[in-house]
Amino acid sequence: TGHFTYDPGFTSTASCESQITYIDGDKGILLYRGYPIDQLAENGDFLETCYLLLYGELPTAAEKADFDYRVTRHTMLHEQMNRFFSGFRRDAHPMAVMVGVVGALSAFYHDSTDISDPYQRMVASLRMIAKMPTIAAMAYKYSVGQPFVYPDNALDFSANFLKMCFSVPCEEYKPNPIYAKAMDRIFILHADHEQNASTSTVRLAGSSGANPFACIAAGIACLWGPAHGGANEAALNMLQEIGTPDRIPEFVARAKDKNDPFRLMGFGHRVYKNYDPRARIMQQTTHEVLGQLGMSNDPLLQVALELEKIALSDEYFIERKLYPNIDFYSGITLRALGFPKSMFTVLFAVARTVGWIAQWKEMIEDPGQRIGRPRQLYIGSPQREYIPVNARG
Ligand code: CMC
């Protein structure tokens, strides 16, 4: 058994070479293709970020217009897919619906199975980026019992998404540019994060040559967990449970108690041992959105700010370098935009789809690519003889 390095949780194993995203966890730096996340989030838009992650460079104006057009052409979902939704219980968690419906796309796009063809890889990438918001909005509409809303290709990515979620046939809908901008920024912040659990899942699934839609469904399943993308929903649940700032010390004490499994959701990160740069931008966006909505006194925001202050001055959190992560503030903003908690991780999935597909594409195009196949340290029984059932004592 001495041939392998034992590395549970892969804390010190690089699984691949990548040119896409760089993180310096000690300094709190995050770069997409070399560009700092704050510059992209403040100045760019989500489709531009998609182009950058997929192709490695920021697009020229002409390239951007062409890319936007090509993505937009794929926003519709096959009409037959509508029936897929009605197979779910109406109170199904939207993430459960996402895992199923996105996986089912592999049954609609057989041509994508030919991953050796660069054209098919490109079309699969565009389809995935374009259809995720449509599927996510349908999962939401299904959960609230409202009719599905078709995509509106005259709108930009995020305004269209909000329209598909929040417009109803009986009322006129005007996209609010402030909401759309905030949504776009949230998508940019979540677009990629190198070899996190869900991205590693997509790469591992893809390394066998599986259909890319099925690989993304595997990534969605992994993202769902509360230690990963599910943390935004869990963080808001926690803030609501705390309710008022006077109850914070009780919860901080629980988080520090090793006999209590409770953790401060939205705190800590495997790689960041400094403030998560995404959390900084997210906090600023939360203030902007709540300010514009006249909700600056939102009690949950007050609890969050106070909790952050108390935790960051506490020995336990300082010693372990536990800072707020992106999920700490995103829930408060998404709630202000009108999303229920059950949709938070779905929105994360919409954004991360581009990261997953860019990483999948990079892997498939890597000439050194081999199937991912970790080894183990076997600690079970040594070899023994089979005993017939009647002879077993
Ligand atoms: N609250 C209280 N204690 C914590 C927390 C927390 N949120 N996070 C870590 N710790 C403690 C942990 O108990 C351990 O203490 P000790 O050394 O005394 O045993 C120490 O800090 C190191 O923690 P770990 O579990 O070994 O760290 P990890 O790298 O395996 O886990 C993590 C990282 C993000 C899963 C973890 O910090 C956590 O569970 N955080 C809460 C969930 C969360 O917010 N997840 C979102 C992550 S960012 C977005 C995303 O990835 O989707």
UniProtKB/TrEMBL annotation:
Keywords: Acyltransferase, Transferase, Tricarboxylic acid cycle
Gene3D superfamilies: 2.20.28.60, Citrate Synthase, domain 1, Cytochrome P450-Terp, domain 2
Catalytic activity field: oxaloacetate + acetyl-CoA + H2O = citrate + CoA + H(+)
Pathway: Carbohydrate metabolism; tricarboxylic acid cycle; isocitrate from oxaloacetate: step 1/2
InterPro entries: Citrate_synth-like_lrg_a-sub, Citrate_synth-like_sm_a-sub, Citrate_synthase, Citrate_synthase_AS, Citrate_synthase_bac-typ, Citrate_synthase_sf, Citrate_synthase_typ-I
GO annotation, cellular component aspect: cytoplasm
Superkingdom, natural source: Bacteria
Catalytic residue positions: H269, D327
CDD domains: EcCS_like (cd06114)
Example GO biological process: tricarboxylic acid cycle
GO molecular function annotations of the record: citrate synthase activity
Family per similarity comment: Belongs to the citrate synthase family.
Identification of the protein by name: Citrate synthase
Taxonomy of the source species: Bacteria, Pseudomonadati, Pseudomonadota, Alphaproteobacteria, Hyphomicrobiales
